[in-house]
Amino acid sequence: MRAIVLAVIAVQVGLAHPARAEESAGSDRSISDMLPLFARNHCGEIKDPADQLFCGDPELNSAAPRLASAIAERLNRLPNRRLAIEENAAWIRDRNSSCGIFGRQSVASRDLKSVRECLLRETEERIEILADPNFDCLATNTTAGVLICSDPSLALAKTELNEHVLALIAKLKENEAREAFAEFERWGRERDRKCDLANKDNVPLQELPSSEGCLTDYFTSRLAEVAAAKGDPKRVFGKHQLSPSPDADAVDLCVAQIHSANACEDFLSVNRVHQIDHQVAEQNATVIAAVEMVVLSPFTACSPIASSCTGTCWDLRSGKPKPSPGNRDNFLVGYRVRIEKTFAFQKADGGSWRCNSSALQPVEVGVATSGP
Question: Are strands 336-347 and 353-355 parallel, antiparallel or unpaired?
């Protein structure tokens, strides 16, 4: 039973693995007595106060599997799962604060009833809204997503492309499917750079340059590419290893190759790649780029995952890179990591460019934050 409860809590934030605590949460003893399932489900092993309540309260414990199912169903209908996981993590933070739960601070016994009722109400509302397919469009948190959602023809084209892509990826083996999902997300980042929508999230829509034509062209070309594959996913995904130019698109592909080689997809997803500077010679080139990532599943801030997938260890208290081992703090879901690095490229036969950087180390600049 304990394993089931912990797994359900993990799915609430879109995690791939159960989020089991490494130490006691130090909760008020009277609360443990007030929660009927607390002892039986070993809820004291859970750090997060909200998750403790879902573990120990019968009604919340009953609602948790329904919430997990609603989240899983939404993830299964979205090719770009990273945005859904990130949005869900933000919802959990907002839910907790609105219900009076702040960080790891224990819930006082006198507040237990009101906090419990708030969590139950928020959960039931969340289950209902997740079932509405229109929410997938409305919940977007990027400028391109807002523009697409506001235009019926673009929204329809996006839905059609998503359906075709999901059908193709469903034919792949697990590892191939994970890489295909990552590649599909890279399509979107390339689209945003090409349509001048990258790094424009805080710009009012009326101040943006007209991008409808560019977005229309993107969907038209991608739908044509998918149709030409005639149901064969390997004619769409996993083909591109070289880049036409040493630029941000090339860096994006390079980072994808590094992440794939280090099995980073379960823990991190690339959010943006931005070119800062570049130098191009006849046969070699370097590109200085900023790479922004979002955490999808917890991992230790100084670990092989941190080194391989972000390029360095981290001090989460300062949000700065820390090359030598330090503490055992964990990156949690929704954390954002931004690094700057110089990527090396070499011209290949035919004039395309091959990435010579096989690792994200060394990181020249970096910052990690716990929210947007």
Answer: antiparallel
pLDDT tens-digit series, residues 192-227: 999 988 888 777 777 776 788 999 999 999 999 999
User: Taking a C-beta distance cutoff of 8 angstroms, is the pair 110, 127 a contact?
Assistant: no
* Predicted confidence (pLDDT) per residue in 291-331, tens digit: 999 998 899 999 999 999 999 999 998 999 987 766 678 99
Q: Report the DSSP pairing between strands 365-369 and 284-295.
A: unpaired
- The model's pTM is 0.76
Q: Cα separation of 14 and 11, whole Å?
A: 5
Please check whether residue 189 is in contact with residue 273, taking contact to mean a CB–CB distance below 8 angstroms: yes
The DSSP code sequence of 241-283 is -SBSSSSHHHHHHHHHHHHHHTT-TTTEEEEEEEEEEEEE-SS
